[in-house]
Amino acid sequence: MGSMMKSIGLAALVAILAYSQAFPCECGWIQVKDGKRELAQTPPPLTIEEYGTYPVVFQGVVKRLDSELFPSCTDCEPESIIATFEVQKAWRGQIEKVYQVRTPGAGPACKYTFIPGETYLVYVKQGTKAFNYGVSRCSRTKLVSGAAEELRQLDMWTSTDSVEKRRRDP
Prior knowledge:
Elements: H1 2-22, E1 29-33, E2 36-40, H2 48-51, E3 56-68, E4 80-92, E5 98-104, E6 119-126, E7 133-134, E8 142-143, H3 148-168
Antiparallel strand pairs: 1-2, 3-4, 3-6, 4-5, 6-7, 6-8
């Protein structure tokens, strides 16, 4: 009976792994359309409330990508990719001219594929202690070339914030 349970457990594990490889990360945002909730492939417009949930929002150029391997595995897919950015502009967070973010390394974990030399609008979510700060394919992070409206919105919100701060703290 014990070996049969092990076989069933092993078969279940193999099935889960095969499923996760066959169906990679799927992103979706809930939207209401005709009074019904449904998944959308693109996020709804950014709200000031959602913007406030990100500890860091910036625009930057990817200068370098580094792989971080699992500690006990030298020939595995990377655990995470660390993207080093040259920051051009920051809307949220106290960040330096160089900033690093992590993204999952491979598999069904929603890795965001950064391209060295490209400029991105980066929305950083706070992760766990081990993951630090990061982004995934399911985040709002995107190439700046496709973010004109969001860039205008961010500039408007931060200029309004600056005016309000000056009024309170002359």
